[in-house]
Specification:
Keywords: Membrane, Transmembrane, Transmembrane helix
GO molecular function, one term: carboxypeptidase activity
Mean pLDDT: 86
Number of helices: 25
Helix content: 40-55%
Radius of gyration: 39 Å
Protein name: Transferrin receptor-like dimerisation domain-containing protein
Strand content: 5-15%
Number of strands: 17
Organism: Maudiozyma humilis (Sour dough yeast)
Family: Belongs to the peptidase M28 family. M28B subfamily.
Distance between the termini: 60 Å
């Protein structure tokens, strides 16, 4: 084992014949044994043997006192005529060392070090003399040392860690976010963000493809390079399908004369469409395919006396979900749906590859709805409610215009100036062909930063990763933002020795285009730990470049998102209830307060999102603008503020007053619309319990703040801390109290009786319901005009209001 201290090797010892610091006589050196000479290691370069060619012949003796030393100085002739050519390397080094010691070290020691030492000794003596008047100087000095150290520790604990700048409470140990925010502004790296975005957008990366493997490896390796507490990869298996070159669309006149053929490519593809072959069916233009529009078509007999022998031609609509357009077509017995893409910057040859899954019934693997099924076969595709019953294909705008031009100017006239045509205009042969993979692997990449106080409570920041295109605007912008956030938090962690109070996970989910399979299967795999430990989910998949940021959120977090946006320079923040589908749905469905941050273009899936034109070059050009660069930095900074608020505030930043108010407003809206059909008495009476809880929470929150944060300084005693942790525990469960373990009627995947998607969304938007995604079981019954079931659900929710209020407040103290 190597020594941990320095030694002098034999070859560096003074050779025989050298004069030493405490020199024996020459005769004694000559007469010494080799063994004795080898033991002498303390040599000095002031005196060297006369026979050493590097030694001056007229070297003065070492035998002088301090006075002699001060009067002697070497002449410049003493070192002038040294023959370096005849000296070995070691002799040259020793000679130079000798010169430095004589001309630098010794003068400094004599003129600086020794006077300072003498002054220090003088001061020590004077202090001891003074202290001896009051007692033993040694005891007094020790006492003063203890007092000084006590005062220093008090300052550190009370006002913060001087070396790191992290403020801490004397009992609660809370971090100073101001310091963290200030440093965040300095370390946001836009070049690194753009590097991430460029690589993520370098190839199409649909779930289960080679591009997906490359992207998940990149995300995993990047997270590992940031040295998170843990990074892991989950391989899950789900039903997937992929495009082929075998799909075709042939158009005939009613006399069966062929008019044109569209050779469909791999772009004319909707994930989760079914395979099918249809022959000689009529084509009807249905505009957006809303329930009202198709009802009108049926009413004026455009669909024929016997419905079911037609294909519906539709446009995508930002105000109507694709899944609901398909479900409405199925409701009116259409045999297939052909969507027309929007044009992009005048280009009419672009195809939008939108998913055809039906998340209204459940999200996740379509063959194992509601349970984790990576190792089981599940049901057949034909039996799955999550798959369409009809083929779905998408055409370019140019191809769609060709079809519409061959329809007659008869039937229903729409707002876009086009007619529906009639069943005698055209005949269509359609073949939809995809490659089905029932157990195709997909990948979730998850990284964790541990908390230091309530490590078992965690926030999840999630982002979708997959799309059948480059995906620069969506979802890669969100993924690059997530990687930048991890980098910022890890930098704060290492720079300030900071750890959040609660844990945080960063999740890159696969399978989003296949009915949000990655997030849902992860939820089903870890159902118990997620329900127990995850108190919120925030999705940033739909983040992009914009002056507006729309936050769809649980009412528990609405005020927090607005407050953190107060000082943003380059964008405005608005909040609203969640009313769209995404990777947040499985969390919301199980009572976990969720939020989705979107820019308007990404929320509405505007072009070129989900096309092959969504490339990095588009964003690269935009990022050349200084204002856009500042916009990206502001978004990262805003999200950092939100995250720090969520994971490092002593109290989980849920606002119970907003939560109760949202329930009350939604209830009043439903009362106004359906008071003659639905008896809301139980809900109205028992929600008063939650209003009381909201006031109690507000009182306790103010009391805790006044007790702990006195004049900006934290001082939390053990009683306050214990009660605070109990409140955090209950807050983390608040929405889960309002979950029915058996799920909603006919949709048992959805457990949350307060907030969730209704089966039919459009009707409640048209009825001006305040929040169509409130009380979903009641809304489903109203859609079916099943008033008896609607009243049963109202009574169930009313009872849950009462039971959950009692469970929430049990054991909590308001004033301590």
């Amino acid at each position: 084992m190597p020594s941990n201290h320095l030694t002098v090797p034999n070859h560096m010892r003074s050779p025989e014949g050298h004069r030493l610091l405490t020199p024996p006589t020459y005769e004694r050196v000559d007469s010494m044994s080799q063994e004795s000479a080898d033991n002498i290691t303390d040599f000095d370069l002031d005196s060297i043997m006369e026979d050493n060619p590097a030694t001056p012949l007229n070297q003065p003796s070492n035998d002088f006192d301090d006075d002699d030393r001060s009067s002697w100085a070497p002449s410049e002739m003493e070192f002038r005529d040294v023959d370096y050519g005849s000296m070995s390397t070691m002799e040259k080094i020793l000679h130079i060392r000798h010169i430095i010691r004589r001309n630098v070290v010794r003068p400094v020691q004599r003129n600086i070090v020794e006077p300072v030492n003498e002054m220090q000794m003088f001061m020590y003596n004077e202090i001891d003399r003074y202290l001896s008047q009051y007692g033993n100087p040694l005891i007094i000095k020790r006492f003063l040392y203890i007092v000084l150290m006590t005062f220093f520790l008090f300052i550190v604990v009370r006002f913060g860690d001087i070396s790191t700048g992290v403020a801490r409470g004397s009992k609660g140990t809370f971090s100073s976010h101001r310091i963290l925010f200030d440093h965040t502004k300095k370390i946001i790296n836009l070049n690194q963000f753009e590097t991430h975005l460029e690589y993520l957008s370098s190839m199409p990366h649909g779930s289960g493809t080679k591009g997906d493997v490359a992207m998940k490896n990149y995300v995993r390796d990047t997270l590992k390079s940031y040295k998170m507490d843990e990074v892991f990869e989950n391989e899950l298996r789900t039903y997937s399908n992929y495009p082929t070159m075998n799909s075709t669309l042939k158009v005939f006149h009613t006399n069966l004369k062929q008019l044109t053929t569209f050779e469909l490519t791999e772009e004319n593809y909707n994930p989760l469409t079914i395979n099918g072959r249809l022959s000689k069916l009529s084509l009807i233009y249905g505009h957006y395919g809303s329930d009202e529009e198709l009802k009108q078509l049926h009413k004026i007999s455009v669909l024929g006396k016997t419905t079911g022998n037609y294909i519906l031609l539709l446009k995508y609509n930002k105000e109507m979900m694709v899944s609901e357009q398909i479900m409405t077509a199925q409701k009116y017995n259409a045999k297939a749906v052909i969507f027309i893409s929007q044009e992009y910057n005048g280009d009419k040859n672009v195809v939008q590859m939108r998913s055809a899954g039906l998340p209204q019934f459940a999200t996740g693997d379509v063959l194992t709805p509601g349970y984790y099924g990576s190792k089981v076969n599940g049901i057949s595709p034909e039996d799955s409610k999550l798959l369409t019953n009809i083929p779905v294909v998408t055409l370019t705008r140019k191809q769609g215009e060709v079809l519409m031009s061959k329809l007659s100017r008869t039937g229903l006239l729409y707002k876009d100036g086009m007619y529906s045509g009639n069943i005698n205009d055209l005949r269509i042969d359609l073949e939809s062909s995809t490659v089905e993979k029932r157990r195709q692997p997909l990948y979730n990449i998850i990284g964790r930063i541990d908390g230091r106080e309530q490590n078992n409570k965690a926030l999840i920041i999630g982002a979708a990763r997959n799309v059948h295109g480059p995906g620069a605007m969506y979802p890669n912008f969100g993924t690059a933002t997530m990687l930048s956030l991890v980098k910022v938090l890890q930098e704060l962690k290492h720079r300030f020795n900071w750890k959040p109070l609660r844990s945080i996970y960063f999740a890159s989910f696969g399978g989003s285009e296949f009915n949000f399979a990655g997030s849902t299967e992860q939820m089903e795999l870890d159902m118990l730990p997620i329900r127990d430990g995850i108190y919120s989910y925030i999705d940033i998949s739909q983040i992009g470049l914009s002056n507006d940021l729309q936050v769809q959120t649980s009412p528990l977090m609405s005020k927090m998102f607005q407050a953190q946006a107060k000082y943003m320079r380059t964008f405005n923040v608005s909040t609203m209830p969640i009313q769209t589908y995404g990777d947040w749905i499985p969390f919301m469905a199980n009572g976990i307060p969720s939020a989705s941050l979107s820019t308007p273009a990404n929320l509405e899936k505007r072009m070129p999102i989900e096309t092959l034109q969504d490339t990095f070059e588009l964003i690269h050009e935009l990022l050349k603008d200084t204002e856009n660069q500042e916009n990206v930095k502001d978004i990262i900074f805003y999200l950092t503020e939100v995250i720090l608020k969520m994971i490092d505030e002593p109290i989980i930043p849920f606002d119970l007053l907003d939560y109760v108010q949202e329930m009350d407003v939604s209830l009043q809206s439903m009362l106004k619309l359906y008071k003659h059909r639905v008896d809301l008495t139980d809900m109205l009476r028992n929600i008063l319990k939650w209003k009381k809880i909201g006031n109690s929470w507000h009182l306790w929150h103010n009391h805790w703040t006044d007790s702990v944060w006195k004049k900006g300084r934290s001082s939390e005693n053990e009683v306050n801390k214990e009660n605070r942790l109990k409140w955090n525990e209950r807050l983390s469960y608040i929405n889960k109290y309002m979950c029915d373990e058996y799920g909603l009627p006919n949709r048992d995947f959805y457990k949350n009786v307060l907030f969730g998607p209704p089966l039919w969304n459009e009707k409640f938007f048209r009825s001006h319901d305040y929040n169509p995604w409130s009380f979903p079981a009641v809304k489903d019954a109203i859609s079916n005009r099943d008033w008896s079931l609607a009243n049963d659900e109202v009574q169930l929710i009313g009872k849950m209001f009462l039971d959950s209020a009692e469970a929430f407040m049990r054991g909590l103290r308001i004033l301590v």
